[in-house]
Specification:
By secondary structure, this protein is an alpha+beta fold. The protein has 4 helices and 7 strands; from the N terminus they run αβααββαββββ. Strands 1-4-5-6-7-2-3 form a 7-stranded mixed β-sheet, with helices on both faces. The longest helix is centred in the first third of the chain and has 18 residues. The radius of gyration is 15 Å and the shape is globular. This is DUF4440 domain-containing protein. Keywords: Signal.
C-alpha cells in the first residue's frame, strides 16, 4: 500500500506520464494509447456494472484493500459491494462529461467529471462530481485501489 501511495504522489507531482482524452459522445478526440484506452474502457464498464448492481463483475475488479470515499463516508471493498448489491446507493447513471487518464508504471489514475444520478434512501439525487479512480496492474489485470467522489460545480473542467 505504501508503494501505491508513493506512486500516486509521483503521478500527481509531475512524473512524466502519458495523458489521454476518451472518446466522449459528440467528440472526435481520440489520442489514447492502447493501455490508456483499456483503462478508460474498464472505467466505463465499471460505471455500467455499478448501475446494473453487478457485484459479480465488480468484485474481482476491486482490490481487496480498496477504499471508497463518498459524500457520506469512507469504506472498504466489502461494504461498497454490499451498498451496491442492496441498493443502499443505486448508481443509476453516470453521465461522463470529461475524462483524463495518466499511467505511470503499474499505476493508472482516471479523473472524470460526471453528473451522477443515484437513488439514495429512496430518493433520486443528481450531483456533479469529479471522480478520481486509482488502478494498479496486478498479474496482468487492472485492479481498482481507490474511488473518490468530490462534489464540484458543473462548470468545473478536468485539466489535461
Amino acid at each position: 500500500m505504501k508503494a501505491t501511495i508513493i506512486a500516486v504522489f509521483m503521478v500527481i507531482t509531475g512524473v512524466e506520464s502519458a495523458s489521454a482524452q476518451a472518446k466522449l459522445p459528440g467528440s472526435t478526440a481520440t489520442s489514447a494509447t492502447k493501455e490508456e484506452q483499456e483503462i478508460l474502457d474498464l472505467s466505463n464498464s465499471k460505471w455500467q456494472w455499478m448501475a446494473d448492481k453487478n457485484v459479480d463483475k465488480l468484485e474481482p475488479l476491486f482490490d481487496n484493500k480498496s477504499k471508497f470515499v463518498h459524500m457520506s463516508g469512507t469504506w472498504k471493498k466489502d461494504e461498497e459491494l454490499d451498498i451496491i448489491k442492496t441498493g443502499k446507493i443505486w448508481y443509476k447513471n453516470a453521465n461522463i462529461h470529461d475524462v483524463a487518464v495518466e499511467i505511470s508504471g503499474q499505476t493508472a489514475i482516471v479523473w472524470s467529471r460526471i453528473t451522477l444520478t443515484a437513488e439514495v434512501r429512496g430518493s433520486d439525487a443528481v450531483t456533479e462530481f469529479t471522480v478520481t479512480e486509482v488502478y494498479q496492474k496486478q498479474n496482468n489485470a487492472w485492479k481498482l485501489l481507490a474511488l473518490t467522489f468530490s462534489s464540484v460545480r458543473d462548470t468545473h473542467q478536468i485539466k489535461k
